[in-house]
Design goal:
Number of strands of chain A: 16
Structural class of chain A: alpha/beta
Mean pLDDT of chain B: 90
Strand order of the largest sheet of chain A: 6-7-8-3-9-10
Radius of gyration of chain B: 20 Å
CATH topology of the largest domain in chain A: Rossmann fold
Helix content of chain A: 25-40%
Order of helices and strands of chain B: HHHHHHHHH
Distance between the termini of chain B: 55 Å
Largest sheet of chain B: none
Low-confidence stretches of chain B: none
Number of domains of chain A: 2
Distance between the termini of chain A: 34 Å
Largest sheet of chain A: 6 strands, mixed
Radius of gyration of chain A: 23 Å
Oligomer: heterodimer
Strand content of chain A: 15-25%
CATH architecture of the largest domain in chain A: 3-Layer(aba) Sandwich
Chain lengths: 375, 213
């Protein structure tokens, strides 16, 4: 539990934190949001004493953090920044191992931690541990950034707009992952963002700040129903009109229209390269006339593919498909049952129209409930 | 006297001068590093002082070599000590400036991340700042070494020996062969040192950074 009591901070004449009092419950995903300059980042950085308040007290589990050694304090709190901040001179493994090393864990313990954490984000140790940050995609880098923060099992993790610099698709995936990890490991996460979509998607509790004060602290549902201030209302804006009717929707309303397809004549190695570049694990394969043929997964290519061969012989039909005009409920049920985690949407002429994933489904449902979303 | 006669008569002296020259260069650059790197690191911690210190060292750099050697002569007398003292002073500036800028140019978000995960000042310096600044620091070392190889020829004037001896002998006796016997090895030495330090620079650049470029 993190408690702020009458915390003040100003730079010159500008007040950043104005007598801030705030309680953050243990095990919650708490999002600090508000217009720029509202003090959300300052609030975050006072928790690990990167910024020292002018007055007031901050307690973690009842202990006054101003009386603790800041270096020791920071080793017990995970920290993820927007620019990722992986050290370019260290490998993935060395980056993750930093805090456990500072805390003098044994080599065996560190080794176990690195293996376990890489597993957690599906980045196998053998493939990734010895790579340098510059060899990873942006999404992979920030996964490692998150793992570094988790390495010494801190009960609290601070995240300062961690996904702000990522492209929307990668951001979606990482948001899902971090939410899962938080639930699984029971961490208290304090997360700064200016993106209301992100806040609504991730938060147990949203803390809306303005001019150094808390305007409202509530669950996403409550904030949507009863925004306490016109500024909050304007932030929620697009999420608030309840017009659409989910019952009339069809499969194509739920899909992501931009999907990556490859011709069946593509070579195996090119496909592997393409997948790793796009950070995906399977590709949609089409016939010469663009009609749907099947899908091919990275595992399948790695297991059975030979260099220089066309992928047509590796294509499987394990992915579920649905016509674009099918009822939304049908698409929904297929998605739940799908072994691959997605459903392909086909046009009447059997060409590929799009892809329904859990994220695209959630987004469409969100839009049906709360109106147009960004991205 | 033909070139071959000259070489057979003086080759022993040329080789001796060559190694004395290397000795002068290694000692001066070594002392330069020992002064400049810690001083450069200190300046990044006291940036208000940095401006003054860097301009003072910059002024020293502009004192003509002969004048500085003369001044050192007053303090240390004749021989190697005054030469090494003067050359070390010259070696300081490029290394100092590169150490300072190399560390200052380390992206601030690396420092923030390092602090945020609980590194103390020493750990940040040795695990983050110095490795990331290393290519720049070695760049300064490279520059210093090449300069000092050429300036060390002046040291012959105050009896420190080295390839400068050959050149001064040649100048005072109008004998081109002596001048060449000093100048050519010095030029070769500068080229070899430059290439060698280039390799060291590459080797000391963290692999992850080389990949990123």
């Amino acid at each position: 539990m993190i408690q702020f009591r009458n915390v003040n901070k100003s730079y010159g004449k500008k007040t950043i934190l104005d007598n801030l009092t705030l309680d953050i419950k243990a095990g919650e995903f708490v999002i600090l949001i508000g217009p720029s300059g509202c003090g959300k980042t300052t609030t975050l950085k006072t928790i690990n004493r990167l910024i020292e308040p002018d007055s007031g007290e901050i307690f973690i589990d009842g202990k006054d953090i101003t009386k603790m050694d800041p270096v020791k304090l920071r080793r017990t709190i995970g920290y993820v920044i927007q620019q990722i901040g992986l050290f370019p001179n260290m490998t993935v493994e060395q980056n993750i191992a930093l805090v456990p090393k500072l805390l003098k864990y044994t080599n065996e313990e560190i080794d176990e931690i690195v293996h376990r954490l890489l597993d957690l984000v599906n980045m196998p140790y053998e493939e990734n541990a010895k790579k340098y940050p510059s060899e990873l995609s942006g999404g992979q880098q920030q996964r490692i950034g998150v793992l570094r923060a988790l390495a010494a099992s801190p009960p609290i993790v601070l995240m300062d707009e961690p996904f702000g610099a990522l492209d929307p698709l990668t951001r979606d995936t990482l948001q899902e992952e971090i939410k899962k990890i938080q639930k699984k490991l029971g961490k208290t996460i304090v997360f700064v963002t200016h993106d209301m979509d992100e806040a609504l998607r991730l938060a147990d509790t949203i803390v809306f700040m303005n001019e150094g004060k808390v305007l409202q602290m509530a669950s996403p549902e409550e904030m949507l129903q009863n925004p306490a201030d016109p500024i909050i209302k304007s932030f929620l804006g697009k999420h608030m009109n309840n017009g659409n009717n989910a019952a009339n929707m069809v499969a194509s309303d739920f899909m992501r229209a931009k999907v990556l397809t490859v011709p069946k004549t593509k070579k195996t190695l090119e496909c592997i390269a393409l997948m790793s570049r796009r950070d995906v694990s399977s590709l949609i394969v089409v016939e010469d006339d663009d009609t749907y043929l099947g899908t091919v997964s990275v595992d399948k290519i790695k297991a059975e593919g030979k260099a220089g061969k066309e992928i047509s012989e590796l294509v499987t039909l394990e992915s579920m498909t649905v016509n674009r005009n099918s009822n939304a409920q049908e698409a929904f049920e297929l998605l739940i049952a799908s072994p691959t985690g997605y459903v392909l949407v086909l046009n009447d002429d059997n060409t590929v129209a799009g892809l329904i994933t859990k994220t695209s489904m959630a987004k469409a449902m969100g839009e049906a409930l709360w109106g147009e979303m960004t991205q | 006297m033909s070139y071959s006669d000259f070489l057979s008569k003086y080759s022993g002296e040329i080789i001796k001068a060559f190694f004395t020259h290397i000795e002068l260069v290694l000692l001066s650059v070594g002392i330069g590093v020992v002064i400049a790197v810690p001083l450069g690191i200190m300046l990044t911690r006291h940036q208000a002082a940095a401006k003054y210190v860097l301009s003072i060292v910059g002024v020293i750099q502009t004192i003509p070599g002969l004048v500085l050697l003369g001044v050192m002569l007053i303090f240390f007398g004749i021989g190697k000590p005054p030469a090494i003292a003067a050359l070390s002073l010259y070696a300081v500036l490029p290394i100092l400036r590169n150490t300072f800028t190399g560390i200052m140019e380390v992206d601030s978000h690396y420092i923030e991340a390092a602090k945020g995960i609980g590194m103390n000042g020493k750990q940040i310096l040795f695990q983050v700042e110095l490795p990331l600044a290393m290519p720049t620091i070695i760049g300064g070392l490279r520059l210093s070494t090449v300069y000092i190889i050429s300036w060390a020829t002046l040291a012959g004037m105050i009896g420190a020996g080295g390839l400068g001896d050959m050149i001064w002998t040649g100048l005072s006796t109008y004998e081109t062969k002596f001048i060449l016997a000093g100048a050519i090895p010095a030029a070769i030495l500068a080229l070899v040192a430059n290439t060698l330090i280039g390799f060291i620079q590459r080797a000391l650049t963290p692999r992850g950074i080389r990949l990123g470029r």
